[in-house]
Amino acid sequence: MAVALLLLTLLLFSLCHALPREAIFDAADVLSDSGFVSMALTLEIVAQTLLQQSHSATVFAPSDSAFKKSGQPSLDLLRFHLAPLPLPPATLRQLTPGSRIPTLFPGQSLTVTSSDNSLVSVNNVKLTDSPIYDDGFLLVYGLDKFFDPTFQFNTPTPNSDSSCSAKNHTDSFDQAIQTLKTGGYSAMASFLGMQLSGVAEQSGITVFAPADDMLMNRIGDLGDYPSFFRRHIVPCRILWNDLVDLGDGTELPTFLEGFAINITRSDGVLILNGVPVFFPDVFFNDRVVVHGVSDVLSPQVNQPHVHEDQEILFDPSEF
């Protein structure tokens, strides 16, 4: 227990450092050398301010011809091309069409429109096959035009799986942890790895994962860690198409006794305890489903007292 809390403390401490200024200038130099001069200059001017609170980021860089055609973009449009999490090619190719990517433009996200081993497009704009710049924390992809903030995507209806039962697939639990780590959910990944690795056949869980940036100022004392993470995990496997079918007012029990997740909607957006789901089906296999949420899940005003067990994070028998 003490070792687990120490590891989480070190992890969260490491996430508190913003992107170094040198990395941004290095990325700008590479962009300029690669023929993205306009975005290189823009990045040098605005990125330090826009990314000063981010420990990692992905930049989608429009080409010089896009700048020539559209003119100098507004600050909000630039924010729409910055994602506050690292997205290496392996992660992007695992995302299904309809997956949302958060941006620094408040209330706006990008949508994956195609992904396979050779092609990834976002908002129907093809990305370069590999990052122009990648130091593990800051990644830059090239685009031939600007993203359109008004873009709408009609999500295809996937085949429905039973929401509370495991299936006989061969994907491993480790894949879920790796996807979380590479997708900007390192804290949640580390917690799951420390608490669930080695657990035998499971009946399925659903993880509602806040991104690392959202956790920086939301976890206090070490004693808060167990209850904090337990309230983001449901003892039931719920894919996105099953989740959206649940009616307003539905409550999902969690591994924190007395804490439930209440489902509502606002302008068609699924809301969990007041927090929007912005990245459905970040990962799913036979045991685990992960959905990204835009903030940490807090108790509702009328929710009964929550029992915070600080000694046992997970009881394997619960699975």
TrEMBL record:
It comes from the Eukaryota. Gene3D superfamilies: FAS1 domain. Keywords: Signal. Residues 24-139, 157-297 form the FAS1 domain. Residues 1-18 form the signal peptide. InterPro entries: FAS1_dom_sf, FAS1_domain, Fasciclin-like_AGP. Pfam families: Fasciclin. PANTHER family: FASCICLIN-LIKE ARABINOGALACTAN PROTEIN, OS02G0491300 PROTEIN-RELATED. Belongs to the fasciclin-like AGP family. This is FAS1 domain-containing protein. It comes from Psophocarpus tetragonolobus (Winged bean).
